[in-house]
Amino acid sequence: MANRFIYLDHNATTPLDARVLEAMLPYLKDKYGNASSIHTKGREAREAIDKARRIIASALGIAPEDLIFTSGGTEADNLAIKGVALANKDKGNHIITSKIEHLAVLNTCQFLEKRMGFTVTYLDVDKYGMVSSEDVKKAIKKETILVTIMHANNEVGTIEPLKEIAKITREKGVYFHTDAVQSFGKVTLKIEDLGVDLLSISAHKIYGPKGVGGLYIRKGVKIYPHQHGGHHERNRRAGTENVSGIAGFGKAVELMQEDFEKKTERIKILRDKLHRGLTEGLDALHLNGHPALRLPNTLNLSFEFVEGESILINLDLKGICAATGSACTSGSLEPSHVLTAMGVAPEISQGAIRFSLGEINSEEEVDYCLEVIPPIIKRLREMSPLYKGGIRENGSIRE
Hints:
By secondary structure, the protein is an alpha/beta fold. It contains 15 helices and twelve strands. The strands form three sheets. Strands 2-8-7-6-5-3-4 form a seven-stranded mixed beta sheet, sandwiched between helices.
């Protein structure tokens, strides 16, 4: 494995599939037209966008006209939350979300709260990172206009009970948005099954290009555009379309659906092998997230008595790429807001590492990780003054 990098950070981003790049290249070279132009070059661009929209809409089980393209998941989240809030402020000013959302959701809600006069309820989660549908029901009041709860958490992988929440929001007449950026492409996802009114997705999490995403908006949802200009995307998102990126997004979704269950199961087997091997080779190891209701590629483990950043540096020296949490919080000295909300003690959360596997990973790579990770942890623990006095005599995991 010398001079070979093992990439276990697929929740941050995925490598661009060569076939996706091939699908994009014509629109970066010869087919360079503006999709709003009526001449031949413009029509070529428009056809590419329409084709991608049909492919992605079919994967979600929606009508093509209900999908608009954005610059990524963050913009999709912003448009959904701000758009619904501003368009429906005559009906109310209350929004419900959870404490474990991606910062694209949390910071948007905080902006509306601090700058626009909205009130926001941030729901607690249980020790697995699960939102309670009953808590959602209790939090809804007559001023509530939107509930935004992610489909699957990007740090620990826990999958939220969207069906149950959607049933409640429908009964109460409240819009329901979900950030499905991490779940799209990893689990079966159909709008009809989830019951949501708005849903955000992104291309670069499914081996597509960065800088392009999408937002599903159910027919009849009242939403206000957050940027102004031309009449692009049915007047909901002004700006010349990223034609090559959208074409790549469509191709990535097309490829995503090929042997989907087989690919997903293979990744899950690798993830579980990594978890099992690390558990057998180390003590004081803690799984963060739900043990079963979790993304099939995500493994978040706390290695007690060791700093996560130190682990990452040592892993990198061995050619292994992992993460301490969300890539969007990289550089922050604060404990993970997700683990904090789950009630994980600071001394345990500081040793958290997220391994997120993908299609490029192999059993050989997992074997290599199991060979090099335990010695790294043991060496770092020997340097820790907390380690020798912290482990129980029987070596069990501290509660």
